[in-house]
Known about the structure:
Layout: E1 5-6, E2 16-17, E3 25-30, E4 36-42, E5 48-54, E6 60-64, E7 70-76, E8 82-89, E9 92-99, E10 105-107
Antiparallel strand pairs: 1-2, 3-4, 4-5, 5-6, 7-8, 8-9, 9-10
Amino acid sequence: DERLVLIPLGEPAKFDYLTPPEISATFPSWCCDSRRILFSKSTGNNSYDICELDTVSRVIKTLLVTPDVSETRPVEDKSGRYIFFESQDSSGSCIAFLDRKTRDVKKLELPYPAKEPFWYEK
């Protein structure tokens, strides 16, 4: 069961599921406003999409869907405009980012070829 859960401090026995059982939510990270959570949602075929959960309204938005590509470990920058993530397809892995304003996705240029799990050789 890979669901997002809030556990209030001081009341460990009381917890609140944020995602429904049919959504497999992995690699969560808090957004800068401490109200939203980014996560990778499994599509069921070894692929992941990037989603965002508003913890107040409980609305889940899918931010990025790319068939046959796994997008994992999303993290928001301090401005809230960019989401950085790992993008993996049959040709390999890279670090990419989504511009929330323009909806563009770009790969970051790395000084060395990426190898699992992103070890670099000089």
